[in-house]
Design a protein that fits this description.
The protein is α+β, with helices and mostly antiparallel strands. The chain has 3 domains: 131 residues, no CATH class; 108 residues, no CATH class; 134 residues, no CATH class. 66% of the residues lie in helices and 14% in strands. The chain is built from 14 helices and 7 strands. The strands form 2 sheets. It has a 5-stranded mixed sheet, with helices on both faces. The chain has a two-stranded antiparallel sheet with strand order 6-7. The two termini are 29 Å apart.
Length: 398
C-alpha cells in the first residue's frame, strides 16, 4: 500500500505486471479502507484504463489525493478519492465496493474503465457507488473536517434522515442515489460498531446499534416509496440488515462479561475475537501460499514476499501469546483452531520462508557473480540469512 511520501515517478515507471503484483494482491486489497483511482493513467509509457492505489487509512487517501491535485500528478477529473469495502457476496465470492467521495470520475466511467482491473487483476467483483461531483465534494469535505467518530450511530441516523427527506415533487429516479448514499453510510458505521464488539461496553454497542437501526428504518420507509426497487438497493439493504442483526444480537449474547464453565471463568468476547482472528489467519495463509507458490514458479519472487511471510508469522505469534494468557477452560474452547495454526500453518510458514530465501540467495549470487562489484548482493544475502535465523528462533520458541 502507499505511504505518506508516495513517489509517483517510481509508480508510473512500473510495468503492469509489477503493479498488479505489488498493489492488487487480494491480501493487500482486503486491508484497504480507502483508495485512489485514476483512469487513463500512463504507466511505463502505456496508458492504462484504470489504476487503483489501496490504502489502509482514510486520512492517507485524503493526503494522497491532495498531493495529486497540488503537484498535478494526474488530471483531477480523471482521479477519484474513494472509500473501500471488501466483503463476500451472496455467492461466497469476494466483492469490492468503491464509494467515490471526491474527484471527477463518475460511477459509470469507473465501471467501464475499471472492470478488467478489478475482475481480472484483483479478482473481485466491482461495485461502484457515488460519483456525483456535488455529492462527492460535500461528503469528502465532511470527512476532512471529522477528526473522530465517537457517536457513529447518531451520525448515521442523521445522515439517513437528511439524505432521504426530499421534496414532494422529487422524481423517483432521484431517490435512488440518496438512498444508496444513506445505506452506504449506515453500513460503514455498522462495520465500525462490529469491530468494537468485545472492546467497549455492551451498553454502548447496543445504544449505537439502536441508533443505526433507527436510521435504517427511515431509509426503509423511503425505499417503500420507490416505484421500483432495483437489485442494487435490495442487496445493500440486506447487507445493512445483516450487520445490524450482528450488532444487536452481540449485545444479548455477551450481556454477561463472564460465564461459568467447569468452575472457571470464561470471557466469551475474548474467545470470539480469538476465533475470528484464527479463522482470518487460516484464510489469509491459503491466499498467501498461492501467491508465493506462483511467484516462485514464475521466478518473480522478491523481498516483498519475505515481508508478507514475516507479517503472517507475526500474526501467528501474537495469537499464540493470546492463547498463553487464557485459563484452562478458555484454552479448551479454542484449542482446535489454535492447534490447527500451530501444527499446520506455523510449520508451513517456516518452510515457505526457507523456499523464498533460498530462491533470493541463489538469485543474488547469480547477480553478484555477473557484476564486478557484488557487495550489494552479498549484503542482501547476509540480511536474508539474519532474518531467516530470527524467524526460525521465534517459531521454535512458540
Amino acid at each position: 500500500m502507499a505511504n505518506a511520501n508516495f513517489d509517483f515517478k517510481e509508480f508510473s515507471a512500473k510495468k503492469m505486471n509489477a503493479y498488479i503484483k505489488e498493489y492488487c494482491k487480494p491480501a493487500v486489497v482486503r486491508k484497504a479502507k480507502a483508495g485512489i483511482l485514476m483512469v487513463d493513467f500512463k504507466m511505463a509509457g502505456k496508458k492504462m484504463p484504470c489504476v487503483f492505489i489501496p490504502l489502509k487509512k482514510k486520512p492517507e487517501a485524503m493526503n494522497l489525493f491532495k498531493q495529486i491535485k497540488k503537484d498535478k500528478e494526474h488530471v483531477i477529473k480523471k482521479t477519484a478519492l474513494a472509500e473501500v469495502i471488501v466483503k463476500k457476496g451472496a455467492d461466497g465470492k469476494e466483492e469490492i465496493t468503491i464509494n467515490i467521495r471526491k474527484g471527477g470520475i463518475s460511477a459509470e466511467q469507473l465501471k467501464a474503465k475499471g472492470a478488467k482491473l478489478f475482475e481480472s487483476g484483483i479478482k473481485m467483483k466491482l461495485n461502484v457507488l457515488g460519483g456525483s461531483e456535488a455529492v462527492a465534494e460535500k461528503r469528502a469535505t465532511q470527512d476532512e473536517a471529522e477528526t473522530s467518530d465517537k457517536n457513529s450511530g447518531a451520525k448515521a441516523e442523521g445522515e439517513a434522515e437528511s439524505n432521504t427527506e426530499g421534496k414532494e415533487g422529487n422524481k423517483a429516479s432521484d431517490s435512488k442515489p440518496k438512498i444508496m448514499e444513506a445505506l452506504t453510510k449506515i453500513f460503514g458505521n455498522s462495520e465500525k460498531v462490529v469491530g468494537a464488539i468485545g472492546k467497549i461496553d455492551d451498553s454502548k454497542i447496543k445504544a449505537n446499534g439502536e441508533k443505526l437501526k433507527a436510521g435504517f428504518m427511515k431509509v426503509v420507509e423511503q425505499i417503500k416509496k420507490m416505484d421500483e426497487v432495483d437489485e442494487e438497493v435490495k442487496e445493500l439493504a440486506t447487507k445493512v440488515k445483516s450487520k445490524l442483526k450482528e450488532i444487536l444480537t452481540a449485545g444479548k449474547a455477551g450481556s454477561s462479561k463472564e460465564t461459568k464453565d467447569s468452575g472457571k471463568a470464561i470471557d466469551a468476547k475474548k474467545l470470539k475475537a480469538f476465533a475470528g482472528e484464527g479463522k482470518g489467519i487460516i484464510a489469509d495463509f491459503k491466499d498467501l501460499k498461492k501467491t508465493i507458490d506462483k511467484n516462485l514458479e514464475d521466478l518473480e519472487s522478491d523481498e516483498n514476499d519475505v515481508k508478507l511471510v514475516e507479517d503472517m508469522i507475526k500474526r501467528v505469534e501474537t495469537l499464540e501469546h493470546q492463547f498463553d494468557s487464557f485459563n484452562e477452560a478458555e484454552m479448551e474452547k479454542v484449542a482446535k483452531i489454535r492447534d490447527a495454526i500451530k501444527g499446520k500453518v506455523a510449520p508451513a510458514l517456516k518452510n515457505m520462508m526457507k523456499d523464498v530465501v533460498k530462491y533470493l540467495k541463489i538469485r543474488d549470487k547469480v547477480v553478484g557473480n555477473k557484476a564486478k562489484n557484488n557487495k550489494e548482493a552479498k549484503s542482501r544475502i547476509s540480511d536474508l540469512n539474519a532474518r531467516l535465523a530470527a524467524l526460525e528462533k521465534s517459531l521454535a520458541e512458540n
